[in-house]
Amino acid sequence: MNYQVGVISGDGIGPEVVREAKKVLDKVGQVFGHTFSYDEILMGGVSIDATGMPLTEEAIAQAQKADAVLMGSIGGNTSTSPWYQLPPQLRPEAGLLKLRKSLNLFANLRPAYLYGELKEACPLRDDIIGDGFDMMIMRELTGGLYFGNRVTEERDGVLTAEDTLTYNENEIRRIAKRGFDIARKRRKKVTSVDKANVLDSSRLWRKVVEEVAKDYPDVALEHMLVDNCAMQLVKDPGQFDVILTENMFGDILSDEASMVTGSIGMLSSASLNDTKFGLYEPSGGSAPDIAGKGIANPIATILSAAMMLRYSFDLDREADAVERAVQQVLKENYRTIDIMPQEEKKASVTQVGTAKMGDLIAERIK
Ligand code: NAD
């Protein structure tokens, strides 16, 4: 079958890591008999340079036509890049927010998985790591505080800022269903995270999640307050399967979860809507500090492509093959610079650059 993949290479290390993900997809195509056609879409700093806008209507239309979109990353050095002299709505990140909104990408999935081979990159103690952990953070992406009304104004002579956190039951229901569906394909446990002891929006969240849970009697549901969840992630990360939460809590918790795995260069993500369409991208940014040096870790982008195979194209076998190939390369002790072990163990591994890592993974797809 032929799949149309929109490709946003973007800025910084984006084009370098996307090149490797395409290499791996092409190998999947050869081995399993599919073809992937790519349509380059401009977004972020490169789009500002070419069109004056971080995302044009034409680019949105291209993304809408694709079966799924694979993205590198966008943005530059926020202190020195001229893109950050522009008004906020013209900066690179505005393009991504607009794309998410235009495509109605309300569900963000971020796996946090600790590879046995990279155990020593994990900052947690051995007794806490135990047998490792494998969780999926499901974050609501188009509602809540980041999309509510906001204003800064003088009130009675005092400068005052106000942000609004709004959720309706439909927004909660659709993300909750997605969370339970994903849990069903995993270890069948959902931890719904809120602040129901304080916030009305959280009390509604909890009520709707409980209603949805009735349709999934095979999935265990527990509720956890967000402050406790922040602690539990470093105290006992192995207890989590799917963490289901609203936009801001998910933003913070998913970064925390990714740090306990040790390297940002390993972490994939997906943003999904009501259909099979999704936007797949590494969790990290454009890493301007290492851009152009050929040393960025492409694994997060390659694993994002695997998520695309699984969630947008229903190609589970092919996704498994990519994930196995990544594991195999780690087992054979190949590492990019960001996942190199401590000095004393360096001799036991082989350091490789971005393109070589892509080659090694592609060669092991079978
Ligand atoms: P960053 O994730 O780009 O970099 C943080 C650190 O992690 C850097 O030292 C970088 O070298 C390293 N790193 C990140 N990805 C790596 C990889 N694949 N391999 C090896 N090392 C890697 O975060 P930042 O420096 O805060 O942001 C840089 C730019 O990226 C900013 O403009 C920011 O707005 C943007 N950004 C974009 C996205 C996105 O495109 N979705 C997400 C986050 C940040």
Describe the protein's architecture and organization.
With 366 residues, the protein is an alpha/beta fold. It folds into two domains: 1-108 and 273-366, Isopropylmalate Dehydrogenase, CATH 3.40.718.10; 123-260, 3-Layer(aba) Sandwich (Isopropylmalate Dehydrogenase), CATH 3.40.718. It has helices at residues 14-32, 45-51, 57-65, 92-102, 126-129, 169-184, 200-213, 226-235, 247-261, 299-311, 316-331, 354-363; strands at 2-10, 35-40, 68-73, 107-113, 134-140, 150-155, 158-163, 189-194, 220-225, 242-245, 268-272, 278-282, 334-335, 350-351. The strands form three sheets. The protein has a ten-stranded mixed sheet with strand order 2-1-3-12-11-4-5-10-8-9, sandwiched between helices. Helix 7 (200-213) links the parallel strand 8 and strand 9 (220-225). The radius of gyration is 21 Å and the shape is globular. The mean pLDDT is 95. Bound molecules: nicotinamide-adenine-dinucleotide. Nicotinamide-adenine-dinucleotide (NAD) binds next to helix 4.
Average pLDDT for all residues: 95
CATH topology of the largest domain: Isopropylmalate Dehydrogenase
Give the proportion of residues in helices.
25-40%
Give the number of domains: 2
Low-pLDDT ranges = none
- How many DSSP E strands? 14
**So, CATH architecture of the largest domain?**
3-Layer(aba) Sandwich
Q: Which molecules are bound besides the chains?
A: nicotinamide-adenine-dinucleotide
Shape: globular
Major beta sheet, strand line-up: 2-1-3-12-11-4-5-10-8-9
The CATH superfamily of the largest domain appears as Isopropylmalate Dehydrogenase
Structural class: alpha/beta
Rg (C-alpha, Å): 21 Å
Largest sheet, in brief, is: 10 strands, mixed
Q: What is the subunit arrangement here?
A: single chain
Distance between the termini: 18 Å
What is the H/E order?
A: EHEHHEHEHEEEHEHEHEHEEHHEEH
Number of helices: 12
Report strand %.
Answer: 15-25%
